[in-house]
Amino acid sequence: MYTSMKTFPRNVEKEYNRMLRSEKYLKERDAEYLNQSADFDDILEINPDPASIPISEFEAENIQKHNRRLDYLPVAMQMLKADYPEGYFLIKDYYYNQDKVSMMYLASKYSMTFETVRYRIDRAKELLKDYIILHENI
Question: Of 79, 82, 108, nearest to 93 (Cα)?
Answer without folding.
Answer: 108
